[in-house]
Amino acid sequence: MLATAQTFTLDGLSARPVRVEVDVHRGLPAFSVVGLPDAAVREARERVRAAMVNCGFEFPLRRIVANLAPASLRKAGPGLDLAIATALLVASGQLDLEQLGSLALVGELALDGSVRPIPGVLAIAEAARERGRTAIVVPAENGPEAALVEEIDVICLESLGQLTALAAGEWRPSRPEPMQLRLSPGAGPDLADLRGQRHLRYALEVAAAGGHSLLMVGPPGAGKSLAASRLPSIMPPLAPEEGFEVARIASACGRLGEGLAAGRPFRAPHHTVSPAGLVGGGNPPGPGEATLAHRGVLFLDELCEFRRDSLEALRAPLETGWVAIARAGSWRHLPCRFMLVAAANPCPCGRGEADPECSCAPLAVRRYQSRLSGALADRIDLLAAIRQPSAEEIGGPPGETSTVVRARVLAARERQELRLGPGRCNAEMTPAELRESALDEDAASLLAESYARRRLSGRAHDRVLRLARTIADLAGAETIGYEQMAQALQLRRRDQE
Amino acid sequence: MTVPRACPECLRRAQLLAHLAPYIEKIATGAPGSRSPELLRLSNEDLAAAAAPKVATRVLAGIDAIPEKRLRGDLVATQCWACCRHDARYPPGLHDAADAPWALIGRGDPALLERLEPQATVTVVGARRASAYGRGVARELGRELAAAGLIVVSGLAFGIDACVHRGALDAGLTVAVLGCGADVAYPAAHRSLWRRIGERGLILSELPPGTGAWRWTFPARNRTMAALAGMTVVVEAAQRSGSLITADLAADLGRDLGAVPGPINSRASAGANDLLAGGACVVRDAQDVLDAMLGPGLRKVEPRGPELEPALVGVLASVEGGEQTCEAVAERLDLSAADAASALATLEALGYVSCSLVGVYSRTMLVAP
Q1: I need a surface site. Which of A121, A215, A253, A338 has the fewest CB within 10 A?
Q2: pTM of the model
Q3: Rounded CA gap, A474 and A478, in Å?
Q4: Interface predicted TM-score (ipTM) over 0.90
Q5: Going from the N-terminus, what domains does chain A have, and what CATH number goes with each?
Q6: To the nearest whole angstrom, how far is the Cα of A81 from the nearest Cα of chain B?
């Protein structure tokens, strides 16, 4: 007898439909799975056999063939277990599930028949809705995640045995409560922890207000990492659809289980990260740190220690907001619109040339600093030079809280959206939009003079204009004034002469 | 502002040089004693007869037939002007040389011509293939000399010359004397430098606009450079180099001669070291040049910057006092980060401070008034 069940397999961040066809007929007892399964799918045979037996079903001692269609698609992961088991139960006449034609099933089976959670349920539920399924059967633990998708019935299954009750219509679980997507930062790390450091605070505020990328240079222990980790707390809350994008990525990486961290993502990969780890890769291609930081902050501590090829790989994604990964047979497009924050020491020993303790050879310092003006650094707008805070500052009163700063950032972002359109910020201004920005006479002459004296390159000219626009937005000004232009000139990242 | 003038006779001399350039090239290169083209002392007729005996009369007749309108039209079309030896603005130093150009064709602000007095002008020349040491010294020297108010003359060649011009442009005035027409950017790689000098300084040549460079025109322009300035400084020159021609010519005119010492085992500096051994003045910095030209200690190298507001004076003082980041300045003076940033950016725009790649500020040479 033949039975089919609909399931989905995860392909990057999106789900692809898979039809499971199970045929049970006479012959030597055997169980084979065909249709490009990976190792985890092939092992499903053993899990399915044990789960069925342990739930009181009978494993048919006949010739069983499970075919996964389309045969050309590579199927990965254990999420197909439940669909194979269900189709096998129907095919062997042990289960009479009328609704099977309108159901989608996903889940991994344990040997005792309980259903284990799988990654990517959010994307799978969305795909099931688009394929016209009326209901989706998911592992109980993934229920709140699947319930985020509206207009599809979510059935939470704890064990394979519950299928009998479901088929008989005796049991109908209620729709699980959808998971809360916490869009604004909660009681996480607060900017108040950063004491003193007014210039750094100011740079953080400007960076958050305009979505500008930031480079912090200073001795170890001066508060660079602390400042970076507080950045998401002063950024505007995620829009609902942005929160959904972030949740979808976290779900596909299997990180949504314990719920989404409040607010924007913050990723700080170690400096030994490979290009594939940073932008995504492998075969089949999976998302990297850049994608995990989508709509949030990607923090590169010790920028000069990162592998050059890793940083090179980040260049194009930083510009386009997408990572394109091509592999033989598959091609992926992963979103990665993040804010880049980098930190570096001023010289190899970290103290900085100005410190009498610094023992670095001038040539070594130059070689080290030359890495700060490489291809990636060219995309960084802001520079904050940090020094070791004094004892009074560390012992002094806490600084402004994130909530206060965020209110100013939000006001500045609203002005930008009015001017540029919803969801856009100054860092994304096109050259044409830049030319339109209004400058008063003093600001224009200051910029022109800096440019004429060769203190600015063409690229830096535009960077300064963007920064000045953001600073004016923070000040609530329509036109960029002298003060704002001067501040932008000071805050800009420096190029090597 | 009055435009300098040139009489048709002197303009025709320039045209004659351009027409005879290939002939002079033939007899002047390779021949012994060609380093200083004695030919240029000759009158028009003698020069033509010496350089191109077969076509002398035809060339002379052709030059005489050029209408004055075209002579001047060429200048206007190329944004050049000319100043001949009969004009009051003709640089006085050139009168000392018997073979000085009859007319100078220039680009840039002609008002600068009047300031080209030997006691206020210094020529800095050196090797085209220069070491990093030489280039660094040249740039610094050019900047300090210009900042001290001297007009810095050089030849727009690769290496030392270009560094001198760049340094001088950072702080003051510079004059480039070319071995081709003043409207020709040669070498082409220096086009942007040539343009900047044209905007903020002066470009001079004795050849009419459009004339290309010949091998003999470089030693020829060296005599102009030597005569223009009260002192000639050689930065890094090998033995038998073109810079030594300039030095010889300057010495012949009785001008001061200086050289920057180089490593004794470096061939690139052998010529400059020879000059020192022969009694040239040792040039270690701009102060040495000022002392040699004006007398010891009469003027100090003290570039002065524009006026500062009181608030900026405080910020400048704190940078001088060792506060090197915006953070530290804000903390010391208890300014908001935005105010400190804006003050530092203003000081940087005025040239009082400079900022490194890692955001560390340092004081420049500029002295506050």
Answers
A1: A253
A2: 0.69
A3: 10
A4: no
A5: 2-168 (3.30.230.10), 191-425 (3.40.50.300), 429-497 (1.10.8.60)
A6: 56
